[in-house]
Amino acid sequence: MKKYLLLLLYSCIAAAATAQSPGIDSSKFSRLTTxxxxxxxxxxxxxxxxxxxxxGPSGNQKDANHANEDEAIANPCPLLPDALLTKKxxxxxxxxxxxxxxxxxxxxxxxxxxxxxIPAKTPKVKWVTKITDYEFVGRTPVVARxxxxxxxxxxxxxxxxxxxxxLVLPSNVKGPVPVLIMFGFPSLPSPAQPSxxxxxKINAAFKEMMIQQNPEMKIIFxxxxxxxxxxxxxxxxxxAPPPADPSPTEQLIAAGWGYCVLEPNSIQADNGAGLTxxxxxxxxxxxxxxxxxxxxxxxxxWGASRALDYxxxxxxxxxxxxGIEGVSRYGKAALVTMAFDQRFGVVLIGSSGKGGATLQRRxxxxxxxxxxxxxxxxxxCGNYLKYATAESSFGSKTGCxxxxxxxxxxxxxxxRPTFVSYGVPxxxxxxxxxxxxxxKAAIAAGTVFKLxxxxxxxxxxxxxxxxxxxxxxxLLDGELAWRQHDGGHTDAPNFQFFIPWANRMLKYIKVPR
Length: 513
Fold this sequence. Notes:
This protein has helices at 2-18, 37-48, 95-113, 196-213, 216-223, 248-254, 278-283, 296-311, 329-340, 368-372, 406-411, 435-451, 495-506; strands spanning 50-53, 125-137, 140-151, 162-170, 177-183, 258-262, 317-327, 346-350, 389-392, 418-422, 480-484. By secondary structure, the protein is an alpha/beta fold. It has two domains: 73-190 and 248-506, Rossmann fold; 201-231, no CATH class.
C-alpha cells in the first residue's frame, strides 16, 4: 500500500510539472508534441537515416541471446582511444595542452556522439524554500529545508519544470561545511513534534472539530476522557546504541557534512515519451530533439548544476567542497555531471555500468545496443543510436567506432577526487555492469590524473594487463579511487571509506560548534 501511494505521489508530481498554467492561451505557442517512446525513437532514427537497430543482449543467462560473460571474447577492439593524443596526432605532455587542446576535443566528441550538448540558452531557476525544520539525523541536530527550483518558462509556458530537493545541514559544527548532492527521492528527516502543551491544544481542537462533524463523537470522547486521538511519535533515543550500519546520510551528517537529495524525474522524466516535456522539452518548446540535443543524463546533470548554483549562495555551505553522488543510472548521471561541470569538488560513482564508468567498446554484459536499442536510449543523445545500427544510409557501426570511451569521461574529472564504487554479482550488483570493464577504464584514465599532478590508482596504466583487485581491497591513496564492496547494487557500504577519503582529498576537518 505504501509503495502504491508513493508511486501515486510521484505520478501527481510529474503531472503537475507538465501541467499548463491557468489562463495561458496555448494558440500563441508551438503545439506541444506528444509521442510514445517508440514514436520518439522512430522519428530520431528517421532523422539519422537508420532503418534498423541491433537488439541488445538479454540479462537472463538462460535466454538464447544472453549477454556475453566470457572475458576471452569481451574485447573486440582492445586498444582504447588515447586520452593524451590530440586529433592532429600530437602527444599531450603539459597541463596547458590538456586544458586548451585535448580536453575540449574530448568534450566535443562526448557531446556529439553520446550525451548531447546543453543548449547555449537554458532557463534560469529560482529556488523557493517551502519548509525549514530543525531535526535530528541519527544523534546529530540538523536544519532541513524542503525546496523547489522553479524554471523560468516565460518563453514556453505550456511546460512547467519544478525541481524537488531537500537540503540537510548539521547544526553542531562550524561552517561552512561540505555538501554531497545525491540523486534520489527527497524527503525531510522525521518531523519535529509539538510540545506536550501544544499537543494538548491540538487534541482539544481536533475533538471539537470531530464533534461538530459528528455529534456522536462526544459520547465516545466522554467515555474515554483521557484518550488523545493524536499522540507524539517516539523521539530519538540517545541512550540506545547506534545502528551497526548507519545510513549514508547519517554518516555524512555525523562527519560534519551536509547532504542534498535531488529528484531527477522532476528535472527530466526517465523515459523517451518525456523528451518533449521536462527541461529538454521546455527548451525545445515541446518539439522533438535533434540528433545532438542533450539526453536525460545531461539534463539531470544540468539540474544538479542548478542546485550547486543555489548552494553557492548559502553561507553555511562550502561551495568548493560540493560533491555529486548516484547509483546505477544515477551513477552515470553523477559521473557526467562531474565531468562537464568543473565546479563540483568530488564524485562518488556507484555501480554505473555502460554509459557511466564502464568501457563502451567492451562486449561484456550490458552492451551499447542495450542502451541505444531499448527503452534507455533517452539517456543519451540521438546520435548514439548510430552505434547500434544494423542497417542505415551510412552502413553499420558498433561501440568500437565511438571516438571516445569511459576512461576519457573519468579523465574529464581530473584532477578532482573521483571515487568509483561497485558491489559484487553474488549480492545483486550483476555481471551485466561489467565491473572489470570499469576497472580498466579507471586504469586508463590514470594517465590524465598524473599529468595534472594528481595520484591515480597507484598501479600501472596498462589496462590490458592490470587485474582487478580482490573485493574489499580499496585503492584509495590518490584522487582517483576504486573500491569493490561485498554488497549489492548500492554504494552504501562504501560510504565509510568514501567520507574519510573525501575529507583527506578536500582537506576538510570537522570543527564542533
